[in-house]
Amino acid sequence: MEKKLRNVLVTGGAGFIGSHLIPQFLEKSHSITVMDNLSTGKLENLKGVFDHPKFAFNRGDIRDKNLPNEVFDGVDSLVHLAALCLCFFNSSLRRSETLPVQEILPSARFLLTPRQMLQAKHIVVHLQNNFGLGKGHQVKLERVTLKSDKALRVFLISNACDEGRLETQRLKLLLKDAGLIYTKKLRQADFIMFNACGHLSMNDVESAQIIQKINGLKKLLAKLIVWGCLPKINPGAIQKIYDGPLLGPEEWDFFADLFNQPKNRSNHVFANALYPLTTLIAFKLTKPQQIIDLMLDKLYSPQQIIDLIPGKLYNHIDRKFYIKIVSGCLNCCTYCSDRLVYKWSRSVPIETILRQFELGLAANRKHFYFVGRDLGSYGYDIGSNLADLLNKIAETYPTQTYQITIYNVSPNSLIALYPKINQTVLTKRIFEIGSHIQSGSERILKLMNKNLKLDDWKKTIQAIQKKYPNIHITTSIIVGFPGEKEEDFKKTKNLLNSILFDRINLYPYSERPNLPSLKLKNHVPEATKMERMKQARKLVRTNSFRKRIQRKHFLY
Questions:
Q1: How far apart are CA 14 and CA 106, in angstroms?
Q2: Which site among 12, 55, 152, 161 is 20 to 30 Å from 272 CA-CA?
Q3: Torsion angle of C-alpha atoms 211, 214, 215, 218, degrees rounded to 10
């Protein structure tokens, strides 16, 4: 390297390569500072330079947000070895290639941008995939200007629920606002942001498999960031295949730092469409025959399959206008992992919701879908409730044509709110109500910590169906909850026979870490659980068909 360096920061300098580079740099530079967390490097590699007047060592990780700014003051150049070593010695990567400079640069920028540490004028990187130092230990280096005009490309992926996909769409809008380029091609991306579902144990498995797929397809130095519910519910499910940051679904400050934006920027960006769903099947779903085979399996509804089909095969347009109205849940069900993700409930002000609603009407949308973990929790923190919101919307927009789906309303909330909702709203404005009872046995409901009288909820549902027959009713059932006896399961079947629901979501009980339900006695054997699921599915299919005949048209 002909031109002299002045103040140089070497990341990962305590490793094998750094130990051979630093003596060369000390002959040419004003000062050398090594930053290494010693996860793989060793201090003995630097024992020959520790007493040099131009040398300084700092133990730390440049990804650490708490590093003092003084570490980076006066740095002219960066020798970036830390991330390169992690990438090249990753046993899951079997590729051998020489990397172009533009692929090295985003890796360094990812590590430095969150702390505003791009003060260095140049970055010096090792570009050869072969780390053999050869005769004289001369390492090939190349100098690159840090302030590149090339915008970083970001690929987004989500296998999450509607709320997770809505937040992924929100992140997409924030990316564009920050001047980054959204790409639909994973192999071109500098960053991959994966919103990972951890609702059930099978979601853990699928999310881990998707991460493995991403690792095999992405550029060698592309950075994967996993966020969403899985990192908060069960991070251990991916710890062997992912060592990056683990972010919850609402840790927007991380992205604000990463994109160099104000921390409150996310409070002013709203998404009203779901980001496309990606599952492990979608990675393989590339031919029409595969889609036909999937339908014949009868494991997925036609709508679910449509959601799985890549855009190049089917341009599916969701005409619903989604509005997130509340975050979190006030309930404390013993089986629900939401409590690990959301620590409190926060409501969106009515005025903000009305502005989004008006945007939807201006876009000629007719179906509005309210999103939240428990819509019945809406308003408790702002002195309001869901009934007030629905009544206010009907009052503000009395003549427009539209309907609203309120999909997640806890049973207790529905009992309390139903009398407060104006009849006009229920007659004309509500398309669907989702209230998820989970069991037909009061004994099991008590173990679930659902403090309600089952008869009160049944009477509320039956009253809605009788007075407002156009409203679609959806519920969910958990089969095989700990302590569920055959008598309890029969009560659940009796419930499903006594009320004809438009839609029923069936789930086998799934053990999740750090939840009270794990400590309950008498867990149901897996074989018994699957047999009950089989019976429940048969009953649901029969009663769903009866409901469709009752309505005199098919819903799907």
A1: 23
A2: 152
A3: -160
DSSP string computed for 425-489? IIIIIEEEEE---B-S-HHHHHHTT--S-HHHHHHHHHHHHHH-TTSEEEEEEEES-TT--HHHH
What pLDDT score was predicted for residue 434?
Answer: 96
| Superfamily classification of domain 153-268 | Methylthiotransferase, N-terminal domain (3.40.50.12160)
Q: Residue ranges of the domains in the chain?
A: 7-145, 153-268, 317-551
User: What share of the chain has pLDDT > 70, as a percent?
Assistant: 75
Residue of 127 and 20 predicted with greater confidence: 20
Q: What are residue 85's DSSP bridge partners? A: none
Cβ contacts of residue 260 below 8 Å, gap of 6+? Answer: 113, 116, 178
pLDDT digits (tens, 9 = 90+) for 109-151: 333 333 333 333 344 444 333 333 333 333 333 333 334 445 7
pLDDT over threshold 80, residue 296: no
7-145 and 317-551 share one fold: no
Q: What is the pLDDT of residues 229-260, one digit of tens each?
A: 999 999 999 989 998 889 999 999 888 888 77
Can you tell me whether residue 298 is helix, strand or coil?
A: coil
Residues 103/220, Cβ–Cβ less than 8 Å = yes
Question: Which of these, 351, 335, 326, lies nearest to 250 by C-alpha position?
Answer: 326
Could you say which of 3.30.1490, 3.40.1000, 3.40.1350, 3.40.50 is the CATH number of the domain covering 7-145?
3.40.50
Dihedral angle sign, alpha carbons of residues 66, 70, 75, 79: negative
